[in-house]
Amino acid sequence: AFKKIVRLQEKRFIADAVVAALLMTAALWFLRDLNLFMIVFAGVFVYFSVLFLFKTISVKELLSLRKSPN
Q: What are the pLDDT digits (tens) for 42-53?
């Protein structure tokens, strides 16, 4: 039973990541005339915002990305 739950969570994570990537791609398509720095920033923002809205990642996990590994 545990393996089925873990696999279901993995499938959901993968599906959420694919949807986030597709939405990021769509957003970047409309922003393609901007400079590279703004495009990269927008891409990161859209991707992580979608993952957060889908509750794929938590606020704690988002904040841990900002911390140094030391």
A: 999 999 999 999
